[in-house]
Design brief:
By secondary structure, this protein is mainly α. Helices cover 75% and strands 0% of the residues.
């Protein structure tokens, strides 16, 4: 009986060790595979951004003239152009720089564009930018969530431009009231 117990304990110990090392190898392999999948899930390319469907508005000639000296708006447009190319470093880097740009953007708005309709759209753009900044700084967010945040920024920016175009177009109309 003693020999039977010894054999049984030996087999049981071997089985436990075998299972332990098998599980450990599978865990390491799973972690490696998960990291490979996740890194692909998080990469956003210019092609991904090109596939985002939204209506993009360009600045009218009136708007171009009105914002000629609004340097922070031009700086923001450069960053959004880079964002369209898949370059998100501005939205991932130092939050203080981003906050400074937004603050200066609002403070330096030309007087003829400082209307509630444009300021509200700038606030929506600000919110979308900070949402993108927050999402892009997370390590476990998939590509779809990041693309939705990018779309929000692009749509919000386009709406600011549309509103500026509409406001300046309306201001340029010379409608005479009947006497």
């Amino acid at each position: 009986m003693s020999k039977l117990k010894t054999t049984f304990l030996y087999i049981l110990s071997s089985l436990i060790l075998f299972l332990y090392f098998s599980c450990n190898r599978n865990t390491e392999t799973s972690k490696k595979n998960l990291q490979e999948v996740n890194s692909e899930d998080f990469k956003v390319s210019a092609k991904d951004i090109d596939n985002i469907k939204y209506t993009e508005f360009a600045l009218s000639n009136l708007s171009e003239n009105a914002i000629e000296n609004w340097l922070k708006f031009h700086e923001l447009q450069e960053e959004i152009t880079l964002l369209k190319k898949g370059e998100m470093s501005f939205f991932k880097d130092d939050k203080a720089i981003l906050e400074g740009l937004i603050t200066d953007l609002k403070n330096e708005i030309p007087k003829n564009l400082s209307t509630s309709s444009i300021l509200v759209r700038l606030s929506v753009l600000e919110t979308a930018i900070f949402k993108l900044e927050g999402i892009s700084s997370l390590s476990n967010v998939n590509k779809e969530v990041i693309l939705n945040a990018i779309k929000d920024v692009l749509v919000s920016n386009s709406n600011v431009i549309l509103q500026m175009n509409k406001k300046l177009e309306k201001d340029s109309q010379n409608i005479q009231k009947p006497s």
